[in-house]
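Q: Got a minute? One more chain.
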Amino acid sequence: MHDIAIIGGGIVGLATGLAVGRRFPRARLLILEKESAVAVHQTGHNSGVIHSGIYYKPGTLKASLCREGNRALVAFCREHGIAHDIPGKLIVAASTSEMPRLLDLMRRGTDNGLEVVLLTPREAHEWEPHVRCVAAVRVPSTGIVDYKQVSRLYADLIVGQGGGLQLQTRVLRMRTSTDFHVIETDKGDFETRFVVNCAGLYSDRVAHLSGDVPVRIIPFRGEYYELATERRALVRSLIYPVPNPSFPFLGVHFTRMIDGSVHAGPNAVLSLKREGYRKMDVDLRDAADILGYRGFWLLAAKNGREGLRELVRSFSKPAFVRSLQQLVPEIRYADVAPAPAGVRAQAVGRDGRLVDDFLLIERHRALHVCNAPSPAATASLAIGEMVAERIGANF
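A: Always. Here it is, folded:
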């Protein structure tokens, strides 16, 4: 019998395990992961950005936990010698029509307690000489790191604290009694007094094992290009466009990775497979889940124009490059080559609304993390502490 079982060995599940082990050192902890290693999917395919929290509505979990998580993650990296950098980023207005949104974003950053600086074009060029803009906001607290390396250290620390990590173990069903749960897997059954669901792309299905959930995960593939080595000097740090407030993604941008490479992207296109990293990947069950969900069609009706634009960028490299040229005009078609894609798990309600905050659903002796897209990696340590605190209130 375990005291606490965590389903999912991505960065949120591991950070939760780390926090639980520290808060309850005598608890018998188990983490179940279906892959042969930790951090294989969302964690292992993201852009490696340590987000500041500027984009998120003040008072939301995303805003508060991203800010707290940023500080905690940087301190963790320093303590354990994990390679990271805090170069800051520029959010640039490419035209005067984007200025109201840029200023609104700056005010949001200030409301979230962040240091943000409005720059003239000349000042922006001091940070990013090749950028084109009418103005820019600099966010100094944005950084970069390898989240797979962070996750592996989380896992090592959990095992060092006495926690269990069971890889290649797929959850199939879950039975619940008054005092404990039985998690049925392809490697046998595990009894536990409390369950934490951090299954990411499958969090809704795991939650559904113990009752209905009001959301469904819709997977969006984010496709990247990488700058040629000889053209990396065009980007010093991170360069973002002003996001469209009616569309939930941040737009294609430039990110200097911790290994020195520069990635451009991602777009955001519907994936018909939850772990579909290639354009033509399709899983029949995943596709049926999407196409049979009323919330998806309501979402598509509302965001059809943006969705079509993203699809064009997916299949047209020239269209993708034109988007990049809005930020750095010197980028040319030959400067970029395709890079590995990622898939974002986005919860969508039955009414077609995107869940725009972290979503945690509590049930009898269970807590389901049903929406934890970006900035969940940045906020992982703060999310883990919050989950551990909620466990303590129920245990």
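A: Residues 65 and 383 are 7 Å apart (CA to CA).
Q: Perfect, thanks.
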